[in-house]
Amino acid sequence: MLDGRSQIKRKLPPRLILSAGWLILLGAAAMLAPWIAPKDPLAQDLFLGQLPPAWVQGHEPGYLLGTDSLGRDVLSRILYGTRLALTVALLAGSITCIIGATLGLLAGFLRGWVDIMISRAIDIWMAFPPVLFSILLIAVLGPGLTSIIIAIVVIDWTRFARVIRAEAMTQGAMDYVASAQVAGRTRLSTMFTEILPNVLPTITVLLTLEMGIAIIVEAILSFVNLSISTDDPTWGGMIAEGRTSIHQAWWVLVFPLITLFLTVLSFSQLGEGLKDRFDPVLR
Amino acid sequence: MSESYAPNLYQIDNLRLSLADMTKKPLVGAAPRLEILKGLSFTIPKGEILGIVGGSGSGKSTLGRALVRLLEPSGGSIKFDGKDITHLPETDLHPLRRRFQMIFQDPMSSLNPRHRVGAIIAAPLSLHGLSNPRQRALEALDHVGLPRGFATRYPHELSGGQRQRIGIARAIALKPDFILADEIVSGLDVSSQAQVLNLLETLVKDLGLTLAFISHDLSVIRRLCTRILVLHRGEIVENAATPALFANPQASYTRDLLDAIPLPDPKQVWA
Ligand SMILES: Nc1ncnc2c1ncn2[C@@H]1O[C@H](COP(=O)(O)OP(=O)(O)OP(=O)(O)O)[C@@H](O)[C@H]1O
Ligand SMILES: [Mg+2]
């Protein structure tokens, strides 16, 4: 009667290793920025403006990724920018996830008037163009970290609510829910112990995706100068500055852009990788 | 457990059940009610194995789900061991729920795919405050003839027959008085069917269970059940002891059902 099915052990998927590796590196950079950054990210030196990266003719030692037009070290600025990017990703991502997934779960599983109210709210929300909506929100709330996070949560909770609602509806029709009722489990308890484990893989994927999206939104807001104070280095801010000098100093734009791209990609791959590795149900 | 001397475990009087027909719901206002059970009256004596047969859509599952109060009847009454449970709210139903259990047709759907087998069997035990749920779950695995090592597996790591045994283990672990089995072998191949039916038969005898067995397979019903209820379009057309029903069916609908049983054909050759 014993067979090999329970013996199948899944290996760590490469994309999980790569994405988690990159994100751990970023996390370390964010925490250790004051010690590992080679220069002060705000220190200007007009005699050292637009220095190219270390492998290009005309570089100066100590400026690995070159300098911007004000002579600030690009590498140091990227390292410091990691702090804001990760803070926004973690905070905005998880708050959006908790609010959106909870509402989706309640609507999809309890149905009835709860569902009607939440679904109406989603419909109304979906009618707002998200970028304009966020710019409007920041304009009202004033720039700052809290405003960015609020803007992301307010705009993106529907992304979770819609998907999780649909999943909860599908799961709610399964017989294991009826079986829980036969066993005497309450509706609310059934939602947490029976439904939640089955939507958790989807929640994980959406959560990491949202963390990437949060970083992009922050970058867009920095780009249009609506993020936090302009002094602190942010990836979006660097990209905006780099754009003006793209022909003289491409590195000011390219390096933060690559960092941003790898980070967003890593977040989305992290979710898929975690699901592959830890979801007990093979698909 | 409260001891009672009612001879009938279930007494059903003029049971009616209607559901909202969502396919015909007008844009505004309530959906029309679809009458599914149209006034059923019967009893299930303690220790009986009642077969419920009938064509597809005749209301077998609906009746079964009303018996274990997954559905609330819209008329008539259901008495369980003398207590009226027709409209009992969930909180008052809770202590009784331990006493009537259900085995579902499709274990793929009725076993939570992301819970381990041990947890699936133990959960109802903890819900009813029984001591040592883990230990009792392992004993239930013994009872249904599965190795204890299966407790740490997920449902998809089992075969169809093994999965259905988990469904049985979950139901008997609570030591209920009554079990409803709704088409529990229809998804299995013939040899697993026989094994699961044998197991069920033994358990019913050993544990002194009362069983309602829903099936559209009259040959299975004939082997297992002491009495048979024939449903047709939400009404009882026949209610008789098994030998009597097969020897001398009263309703024409029952005769049609009996005629539809495929008989082994001696002249048939292997292609
Ligand atoms: N949720 C529902 N809403 C509306 N009608 C329903 C619902 N569930 C069942 N019905 C209808 O009730 C009738 C009886 O259904 P039921 O599932 O009890 O039949 P059954 O005898 O178990 O059939 P089968 O042998 O196919 O399982 C069917 O006509 C079905 O279409
Ligand atoms: Mg049915």
Overview of the molecule:
The complex is a heterodimer of chains A (283) and B (271). Chain A is mainly α and 283 residues long. Chain A has a single domain (14-31, 64-278), classed as MetI-like fold (Orthogonal Bundle). In chain A, 70% of the residues lie in helices and 0% in strands. Chain A has 9 helices and no strands. In chain A, helix 2 (74-110) packs parallel to helix 5 (145-172). In chain A, 45% of the residues are buried. By secondary structure, chain B is α/β, with parallel strands linked by helices. Chain B folds into 2 domains: 8-217, P-loop containing nucleotide triphosphate hydrolases (Rossmann fold, 3-Layer(aba) Sandwich), CATH 3.40.50; 240-271, no CATH class. Chain B is built from 10 helices and 10 strands. In chain B, the strands form 2 sheets. Chain B has a 6-stranded mixed beta sheet, with helices on both faces. In chain B, strands 2-1-4-5 form a 4-stranded antiparallel beta sheet, with helices on one face. The longest helix of chain B is centred in the C-terminal third of the chain and has 18 residues, at 190-207. The radius of gyration of chain B is 19 Å and the shape is globular. The chains are: A mainly alpha (283), B alpha/beta (271). Chain A binds chain B through residues 1-2, 5-6, 174-176, 178-186, 193-194, 197-198, 200, 279-282, and chain B through 65, 68, 70, 90, 93-94, 97-98, 100-102, 104-106, 109-115, 123-124, 127-128, 146-147, 149, 152-154, 156-157, 162, 170, 174.
